[in-house]
């Protein structure tokens, strides 16, 4: 089966939901059990030796996502929104599903049909992986024998159910409870490409051309970076404090500061905070640029500015942050981050401040546009640098605030200043172009 993802619907979870993940149900756990289960979805956890209902767990997570984001990808959410049956509305029919299938790399799959205008229109896989701490919903590609076979099996079961219960199936609150009499149930199908733990498709995507909002590893990585599995929304001050306390961050910042001592001729240097594995240095470093590589495999990036330009995030840096945010799990776009270090004690952190729906479309920023914005940023800096009423930090913050506005990202990026390696301030962008620093209580 192909790995490509259809552009219409792509939902990814990496323990981003506050409901039914992490510590839900902790009253049932001993201290030892709580430590083990703290990073697991509790809807996929057995209490009192009861069997795990994986099909119901996937349904619960999707419905929780709909409830939080006011979407209606699940049938129950479509019913409640009044959109069920509209010709342009496609939803996942969780009442009909395959058996639970354990595939390669211990990924657990359940396949569900999708419905549009009363007809089955596609297949969606609920995928549980990484020791049951990450969930992905992936729309499967059509145009292959396996897809056609499964869709045919589901179509026959769906048609039979509708004929038996009435085509519109509107009676008795049908569909609001996966255990009710209207539940179509479990259909046994062949696992994708062979048997369980055989050659089933791996999770993830193969690059920018094949994925829309993919997630190749979930939230923040090990070692105290932003986000992380088993976490819900975290205040930016707390995220940055956790980052500063991590040894990973301390090692990277020290390396970048050591690089600055080599002078401006040494140019920029950067580090990637990878979703999988330890941080790695960037490549193709230049006087005013580093190449971070594939953003889909990153949680965040660090780099220095050598002191010969504007010593804060450039338009290129902002565009890089957007791409890293694009490839975070749905609900975790704010986990994407960038760090810049420059001479004179300059240290800034930024996060994306919005949902995936608010991320500019892929390809929104051309190389020409970024060059123009970078040139504009330099001009703004030259005009601002002579203002003796502003501190050096305030001048830089005013410049990046102007760049954010030019890029249509005003108030879509959280900017934080770090002083003396521990003092954190969140920089508010005011409507008149000025900025205000609010110290974090850390």
What report would you give on this structure?
- With 442 residues, this protein is α+β, with helices and mostly antiparallel strands.
- It has 9 helices and 16 strands.
- The protein has helices spanning 31-37, 54-69, 75-81, 145-165, 236-245, 247-260, 315-326, 367-385, 392-406; strands at residues 11-13, 90-92, 96-98, 101-102, 108-116, 119-129, 134-139, 185-187, 270-274, 280-281, 298-304, 337-342, 346-352, 413-419, 423-429, 435-439.
Produce a short descriptive summary:
With 442 residues, this protein is an alpha+beta fold. It is 27% helix and 19% strand. The protein is built from 9 helices and 16 strands.
Task: Throw out a few tags for this protein.
442 residues; alpha+beta; disordered N terminus
> Could you give the order of the helices and strands?
EHHHEEEEEEHEHHEEEHEEHHEEE
Determine the structural class based on helices, strands and strand pairing.
alpha+beta
Q: Give the termini distance in whole angstroms.
A: 50 Å
Report helical residue fraction: 25-40%
Strand content range: 15-25%
Instruction: State the strand order across the main sheet.
Output: 10-9-11-12-13-14-15-16
């Amino acid at each position: 089966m192909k790995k490509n993802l259809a552009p219409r619907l792509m939902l990814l979870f990496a323990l981003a939901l506050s409901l039914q993940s992490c510590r839900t149900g902790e009253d049932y756990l001993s201290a030892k059990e709580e430590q083990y289960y703290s990073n697991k979805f509790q809807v996929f956890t057995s209490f009192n030796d009861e069997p795990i209902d994986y099909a119901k767990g996937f349904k619960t997570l999707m419905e929780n996502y709909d409830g939080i984001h006011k979407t209606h990808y699940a049938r129950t959410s479509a019913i409640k929104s009044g959109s069920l049956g509209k010709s342009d509305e496609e939803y996942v029919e969780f009442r009909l599903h395959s058996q639970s299938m354990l595939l390669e790399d211990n990924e657990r799959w359940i396949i569900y049909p999708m419905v549009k205008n009363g007809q089955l229109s596609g297949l969606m896989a609920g995928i549980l992986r990484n020791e049951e701490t990450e969930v992905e919903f992936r729309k499967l590609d059509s145009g292959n024998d396996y897809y056609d076979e499964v869709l045919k099996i589901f179509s026959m079961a769906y048609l039979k159910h509708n004929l038996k219960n009435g085509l519109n199936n509107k009676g008795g609150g049908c569909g609001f409870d996966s255990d009710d009499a209207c539940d179509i149930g479990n259909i046994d199908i062949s696992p994708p490409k062979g048997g369980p733990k055989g050659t089933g498709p791996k999770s993830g995507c193969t690059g920018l051309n094949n994925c829309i909002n993919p997630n190749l590893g979930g939230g923040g990585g090990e070692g105290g970076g932003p986000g992380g599995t088993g976490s819900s929304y975290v205040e930016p001050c707390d995220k940055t404090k956790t980052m500063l306390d991590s040894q990973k961050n301390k090692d990277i910042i020290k390396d970048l500061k050591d690089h600055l001592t080599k002078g401006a001729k040494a140019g920029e240097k950067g580090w990637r905070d990878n979703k999988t594995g330890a941080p790695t240095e960037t490549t193709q470093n230049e006087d005013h640029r580093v190449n971070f590589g594939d953003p889909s495999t990153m949680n965040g990036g660090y780099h220095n500015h050598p002191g010969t330009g504007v010593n804060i995030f450039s338009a290129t840096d902002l565009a890089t942050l957007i791409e890293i945010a694009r490839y975070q799990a749905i609900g975790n776009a704010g986990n994407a981050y960038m760090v810049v270090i420059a001479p004179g004690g300059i240290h800034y952190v930024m996060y994306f401040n919005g949902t995936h729906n608010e991320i500019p479309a892929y390809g929104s920023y051309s190389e020409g546009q970024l060059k123009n914005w970078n040139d504009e940023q330099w001009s703004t800096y030259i005009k601002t640098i002579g203002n003796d009423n502003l501190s050096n930090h305030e001048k830089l913050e005013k410049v990046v605030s102007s760049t954010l506005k030019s890029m249509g990202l005003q108030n879509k990026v959280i900017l934080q200043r770090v002083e003396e390696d521990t003092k954190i301030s969140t920089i508010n962008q005011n409507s008149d172009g000025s900025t205000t620093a609010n110290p974090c209580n850390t």
